[in-house]
Give the backbone structure.
Amino acid sequence: MRRTVAAALAVIALIPGPVLSQVRLSRDLTLSGSTRLRYEGWGWFDTGLPSDPQRYGFFAAQSHLVLNATPAPWLAGRVDVQNTTFLGLPDDANAPPPLGDLGLGATYYAPEQKRDDSRVFINQLFLGVKDPARPGTYVRAGRFEYLDGVEVMSGDPVIDWVKRNRLTARLIGTFGFSHVSRSFDGATAAFDRPRWNLTALAARPRQGGFAIDGMKEITDIDVAALTATLKPGVLGKRTEGRLFYIYYDDRRSPADQVVKADNRPAPVRAADSAAITIHQVGGHLVRAVPAGKATVDLMAWGVVQKGDWGRLDHSAWAAALEAGVQFPAGRLNPWVRAGYLRTSGDSDPTDGRHGTFFQTLTTVRLYAQFPFYNMMNSEDLFAQLVLRPVPGKLSLRSDVHLLRLTEATDLWYVGSGATLREGNFGYGGRPSNGGKSLATLLDASVTWDPHPRVSVYGYAGHAFGKDVIRSIYNGRSGNFAYLETTLKL
């Protein structure tokens, strides 16, 4: 631990302070950059092993150097070079099934088996054509970032907060919380009008997330999406609606050391080399309603999935309902929210049908801030309090989540989607052992922006394990905390 902290401080000392704004190299070229520094501390659920491998900390840094080119009003390009560095990853935080990876330190360590590592790769490299009169209309090809749910922003601060924090990347995302993140190789296009927006995507993900070798494309996965968004004013003055279709095809197989995560016996899964092909149709509705001096926000989201899960027929669904009240401006500017998520699980591992909701290529941490769970085979009843004592500079948030599995015959799932060409599926599961009650999660976070180019974020979460966790681990308590600073050059 001392060695890791000392190395982290040395790296921080070598990084220049945020003394430069975006640099204009010429009339057509601008250069910008950022560095995110984070120290993570993990206290995974107790394994009972005398060495306490579930307790550790490590340091990571993610830096970007971005060159933007606009040689013509209708033409734009971007090159985003990323560096990811790890110091002090744990080499002993993995245990035999069903204990598995004891926190994300083990997951980062697994692909390269190195405690300290650093890689440079291209996160974005694209060329785009746009309509100068309508910047939201464009065609873009190359390597780029994409998040579902925020294809277009509404301009309403309440609706857009809900979109950024409670809707984006439920199915397709950049996995920006991770130290390697995710981008896509392919093309995307949007046709934007004052009352609506139509956005399309056809791409393949690059490696990333937990895999530090972020340069390679995952060639055996195809994803496509078509999204129609009705802007505020169509369905109501402060109401936004969205309909989407998402296609996902994963041809990786046990020959690539990729075994599907589901509740079938391991030998059956290992023999299933057929592709996963899923069609998804869904949408969301967000509404902000004045209530005296307060503002009420309402959000509904849902999706239905059909297709093939290897040799099985796939049929699944997910739905979420949330509401909040933002009270009149005062010293703390409180915002109270609550919601309920339920997703389908698989009720019978022998019936030739796969019923577990598949979270595709998500950014799981937005909806599981202590990411020991995700939205697959899941029920999540939560309450949330957001305080903003200094709007725009200081905010505090605290959540409580009551977590259960939808089906006791299915698994307790973790993961955020494919991160490697081979060697890892992207999701994993532990047995429920006949239980449904997973955990109660209490957490708190603080965001402080002391300067336009400096942001500090801290998080701490404690999980009280219930029946499912107690049936696997020796102790029921899990802890996760981290502190990060982001510097924009």
